[in-house]
TrEMBL record:
This is Cell division control 14, SIN component. It comes from the Eukaryota. It comes from Lentithecium fluviatile CBS 122367. Keywords: Cell cycle, Cell division. Residues 40-69 are annotated as: Disordered. InterPro entries: Cell_div_Cdc14.
Amino acid sequence: MEALLSLAFDNIASKDASKIRKGLRQIEGLLAQICLSNGKSKPSTPAHRRNASAINLGEQKQSTPKKLSQLGEDPAFREFFRLQEGFEWNVATRVVDCLERLLGMTASKDGSNDLLIISSLSNLQGLLLLHPPSRVIFGRRTNMDLLLDLLDPYNCPAIQSASLLVLVTALLATPQNTRMFERRDGLLTVTSLFKDEGTVQHVRVKLLEFLYFYLMPEAPVQSASAPSTSKLAGAFERRSSTISGDDGGGVAKTNILTQEQKQEMLAQFLNNVEGLVQDLQESAPFTSVAC
């Protein structure tokens, strides 16, 4: 798995669009192999299956999703999770770096650069779901700013939608990231895009769903996989403590706001927040989610 990740990292670190595309597909293939089980494929060694899925995703046509309860016992997932605990093999940090480079590249007339950004965001969402401790990287100002930049009105609707999905995943059960989102004017960014006349309807719907999510009661994750207990999170905390004025402190200084406090903050940028809260309480769309 290290060899495959090393190859993918080299590709997405390139300035060549074709290599970046190949690297993103290799990461996608690895995630697919972890999440999918082959129903009718011929038996092969685990290493062979992982490499093949990274190169040729067409072979996954007959695959079916694994049950969540199966992942913890899957050797490939356990190895992947172990590798993600350190900076050297953490895929989310590499994809974020790739996204930053893509934003700095000249936009292509055929939209291929936009497709690479969307592919990066799709991979990033999967990575944050498979390895929740990686969400801690969005407790850093520069990474949160990157996500908010992708919500710029000048970006295409597909990028805006994909960015919102990653933003939800980055904030999910990670209050310290929500505080960073607020400090970096995330509420202003989201509500401005929501009120912008040029925002297409399906993006506006996703923005409304995000606001519902934001207003949910907060609760930290109390589990072995929680960001606060992760080796990766600990490394970020140590780094934050050695940099004066960086990001408002380490991950251990998490503070949780009440729904009423968040309602007051959102009301500075949006009217009828009370109506949103009432709808949220009546419909309870995220009954099993803690943001």
